[in-house]
Design brief:
Length: about 180
């Protein structure tokens, strides 16, 4: 089993944290994981991404060459992956922030719009967009358990923030499963 995920957005959206948490949960489940990150010159507002590879075998190269899943949370990030190759790659984009009609591209069935930011706001936690995205990604990787994800979150967030983040994670998993 090998699964490659790219979380992409702009600085401040927490995409690197989402990749880190997913990788930590994978390791808790006995899998191997690598995570790399890249971000623009400005810490907030510039392009940022993280590549995560999860496998049950040794990982020889830490960057995603054939992603199975890309989650784009900002238009700049989405535009970098509009020409992604591979029929097996699903691109989930935040349709609340990215207006694909204005971009003028014809998208195929690999592209799925989900109003991720709007859903996070409805949950009462606008800052949990990354955790909602984490849940979506986790639903595609069957070998990562909810218990491992919850445990990873419990070691990362304070008791005050944990409940909202677990709610966002659960909603993300539910959304992801509806796309399988």
């Amino acid at each position: 089993m090998r699964y490659e995920v790219i979380f992409a957005g702009i600085g401040g959206q927490g995409v690197i944290l989402a990749g880190t948490l997913l990788g930590e949960a994978a390791v808790r489940c006995g899998l191997k994981a690598t995570q790399t990150q890249a971000y623009g010159v400005s810490a907030r507002g510039g392009f940022t991404k993280t590549d995560l590879i999860v496998s049950d075998e040794e990982i020889l190269y830490p960057y995603s060459l054939n992603p199975n899943l890309i989650i784009a949370l900002a238009e700049e990030a989405f535009m970098r992956y509009i020409d992604v190759n591979g029929d097996a790659c699903k691109v989930i984009y935040d349709s609340g922030l990215i207006d694909v009609k204005s971009i003028g591209f014809s998208l195929d069935k690999r592209f799925v719009g989900v109003p991720i930011t709007n859903i996070a706001v409805e949950l009462g936690s606008p800052r949990s967009v990354n955790i909602l995205s984490l849940g979506i990604a986790a639903s595609f990787i069957k070998d990562i358990s909810f218990d491992a994800l919850r445990e990873t979150l419990s070691e990362t967030f304070s008791a005050n923030a944990l409940e909202k983040n677990i709610e966002a994670l659960s909603k993300g998993i539910e959304l992801g499963r509806s796309m399988l």
